[in-house]
Structures are given as C-alpha cells and as structure tokens.
Amino acid sequence: MADLRNNFVGIKSPNPFWLASAPPTDKAYNVERAFKAGWGGVVWKTLGEEGPPVVNVNGPRYGAIWSSDRRLVGFNNIELITDRPLQLNLQEIKQVKKNWPDRALVVSIMVPCNEDSWKAILPLVEETEADGIELNFGCPHGMSERGMGAAVGQVPEYVEMVVRWCKQYSRMPVITKLTPNVTDVRRPARAAKNGGTDAVSLINTINSITGVDLDNMSPTPSIDGKGTHGGYCGPAAKPIALHMVADIARDKETLGLPISGIGGVTTWRDAAEFIALGAGNVQVCTAAMVYGFKIVEEMVSGLANWMDEKGYRTIEEFSGRASRNVTDWQFLNLDYITKATINQDLCIKCGRCHIACEDTSHQAIMKEKNGVRHFEVMNDECVGCNLCVNVCPVEDCITMEAQAPGTVDERTGRIVTGKYSNWTTHPNNPMRVTEPAE
Ligand SMILES: Cc1cc2nc3c(=O)[nH]c(=O)nc-3n(C[C@H](O)[C@H](O)[C@H](O)COP(=O)(O)O)c2cc1C
Ligand code: SF4
Ligand code: SF4
C-alpha cells in the first residue's frame, strides 16, 4: 500500500498536496475546512508588514479562459496579498497550527526589500510555531509596482540577499517562491540556493491579459473601463511550470535543491508529473478555487492507486524519475522513426487529420480509396510529426508506431538501425563530433 506521507525540508504532512498561498488559505475558517477535507498542508495567504493592510479593488478581480464545454482552463487575477490585519492572521495561524499539529503550515511573506522589514516580521511569524516560511518573490501585479513580489524575484541579487536575511534572522525552513516572469528561471533559483534557501517553489502567476471587452475597449477584468495585467494560472499554466521545475531539477548548480511544484495541478496525475520531474510535493490554488476543497480526496486516492499499480511505496521512490529523461534537443535520437497509424474501426471519417496533414504537414494522409471516403496514412510521406494525433477528435484512433530495427523507412529508403544517433554527430551538422555526446 502506497505511503503518501511527505517530508519536505523537514516539514511533515500526511500527503504531498498543499494548498498554495491564495484565497483558499487566507483565514482560519478556510484552512480548518481544508484540513478537514484532507489537505496535507497549506501555505497561508501572503502576509505583509505591520500597519494598514493593502486595499484590493472592489470590482472584478478575476479573468478566465474556458474550453468549449465551459471548463475553466486558464485563470487570471489582480488580487494583492492579504488585506486582513497582520495580528489577526498571526493569531489564527498560531491557533490552526495548535489544532492541526500533523499538517504542514507554512506562512508566505512579502515585505519591502530592506533588512529591517524582514528582521521585524520574521520573529512574529516564528512565534506562531508555523512550520516554515515561503518568500513571495512572484506576485506580478500591484505589489511588484511597489518594489516587492516579482520585482524582487526578477533580480537574482535581491533574491539572494533577502534569502540570506531570512536564514540569518529565523530558524524556520525557507522556501523561496519564484516568478515565471523571467527569461531563465535557473538564475533566481541559483541565487536562492546561494543565499541558503532550503527549497524553491514554483511557479507563481504569469503576466497576462485574459481578454479585451470589445464594447468598452478595456482589458478584462475591467474596473470602471480600465484593466491591468494580472497573474495567469490554472491548467493552461501547467506546461510552463513543468518546464521550469525540470529546468531547476536538472541544473548542475541546483541539483538536489528541494522543489515544491505549483501550476495547474488539478488531478493526481498532474501532481505525479510534477513529482516525476523533480518536485518533492505540490501546491494547488486554482483547482481548489474552482472545485472546492474536496478535490483533494480524489488526488489522494488517485495518486495512491497509481503508486500501488506501479509498485512505488513512497513519493521519494519516483520523485525525479522523469527529470533524468529531460534533455536538450541536440541529444534526441534521430534514428527513432515513427509513423502514424489510423485505426479504421475507430475512425469516424471526419477528415480533420487529412486537412491538418495536407495543409500544414507532409500531405501524408489520403482522403479517398476506390472512390469512397477513406483516411489512411501513406508511410512514404509521413514524417511522424503526430499533428494528426493531436487534431483527431477520437481518442486513440491515430497512434504513433515506432519502426522496428532492420525495417526500411519508406520515406527515406534508409534502414532503421536501432542505434542511438543524434545531432552532435549528424553529417549536416557543421560542428559535428565523431562520438555522439549525451
Ligand atoms: C486569486 C489568487 C491569489 C493569489 N495570491 C497569492 C499570494 O498572496 N501569494 C502567493 O505567493 N501566490 C498567490 N497566488 C498564486 C498561487 O499561489 C499559485 O502560485 C498560482 O495560482 C499557480 O497555481 P495554480 O495554477 O494551482 O493556481 C494567487 C493566485 C490566485 C489565483
Ligand atoms: S504524423 Fe504528421 S506527417 Fe504523419 S500523417 Fe500525421 S500529420 Fe501527417
Ligand atoms: S481525424 Fe481521426 S476520426 Fe477524423 S478522419 Fe482522421 S483518423 Fe478518422
């Protein structure tokens, strides 16, 4: 039976599913119910410094992108950090931790980028006996204009400096939450490591405008006729997050640095993917906001069932297993030949594969045979790109089949060797070497 218990930088939780710092974690009322529903941990909604709390807009603060069946696939917000008084949050954090000692309770913090501000807030949070802190270097709107959030996360020197203060002035484990709004996420990750962070978490939200109201010519969400960029998240953000997690997991300079994976986690499978690419646990925001706290039940049971099926007893057993298979393009095997195959029993003859291949790929799918509508791949033209698989409306109707060694690729006339060969030794590469590099 799979053991889902999680130990992330010494912070223990009964499962690897934490709620990310956001509205689901902004008060004891929510966090208590989240724990009752089964969440392993939470990162409390970001706290700011003592004094008058921030003020949110009083109009719409969310935007969304939907699939054609109205499922929310992308989510955008212009919300700021907590707008509740610091002392109230601290009292509630302390009480909730007391009530739920077996759950992870991490506190997200964002204060101005000066030593005194960090020095002042750290003991207040430490006093709550929370398990750790997460540094919000990612909020891309509102707070960044005030020199915090992403404005810090985008400057590796600042990241390193603030992490260093946190390690110096607190005993709590430090998780540095990174912004995706950078060219190369490895740079802030390395800086966080140099500053002594215990872990990184990513991603925070992506700069975005979800749409334009064409009647009043304002970006949405529109506040009295004007809009601003927000932070994008939800399922549509997952591919960007996975890439960034993988980048950090395989970077020599941050190898072994614990990662909390965030971005579009909606099902157990999403979580398994983050973990396989090197995350030690995951955090969830949009899915909880859209479907409620109870989705964690399916995440927990789904992950446990899959682990049982695969024979993984613990999260550690498969964490990072896929990151070793993330490589650079130049190392991909150019002697791996695949062809698309259409299952005629499943094909509904809609013709979409033909149009896609004909207009934008390699004219490799016939639409007619013996005068009747018929869709079949012509192996002598197919380059194996799999565009047809992606546009076919019937799942598993088109599959990609690898050619066995010794067979002839009808398109090129070459025999498939079954040997690994990549761009580094390819005759067309002016920089080729004699032995393939891996
Ligand atoms: C409405 C909203 C408010 C958020 N507030 C915070 C915040 O206060 N601090 C923070 O670190 N991240 C905040 N986030 C970002 C989330 O914690 C998370 O990084 C992001 O939404 C990606 O995860 P998801 O795709 O599961 O939503 C917020 C996200 C949303 C949607
Ligand atoms: S795999 Fe690409 S080239 Fe081959 S049939 Fe499909 S779309 Fe055409
Ligand atoms: S897209 Fe799929 S279902 Fe439609 S014709 Fe092609 S193979 Fe058949």
Q: What does this 3D model show about the protein?
A:
The chain contains 13 helices and 20 strands. α3 (115-126) packs across α5 and α5 runs parallel beside α6. It is 29% helix and 20% strand. By secondary structure, it is an alpha/beta fold. The strands form six sheets. An eight-stranded parallel beta barrel has the order 3-4-7-8-9-10-15-16, surrounded by eight helices. A four-stranded antiparallel β-sheet has the order 5-6-14-11, with no helix packed on it. Strands 1-2 form a two-stranded antiparallel sheet. The protein has helices at residues 28-37, 86-99, 115-126, 150-153, 156-169, 186-195, 238-249, 268-276, 286-291, 295-310, 315-318, 352-360, 387-391, and strands spanning 6-8, 11-13, 17-19, 41-47, 62-66, 72-77, 104-109, 132-136, 174-177, 199-202, 206-208, 211-213, 218-220, 230-233, 259-262, 281-284, 338-342, 365-369, 372-377, 398-402. It is globular. The longest helix has 16 residues, at 295-310. The two termini are 37 Å apart. It binds flavin mononucleotide (FMN) and iron/sulfur cluster (2 copies). Residues 20-23, 45-46, 75, 77, 79, 81, 108, 136, 138-139, 177, 204-205, 233-234, 237, 262-265, 284-287 line the site of flavin mononucleotide.
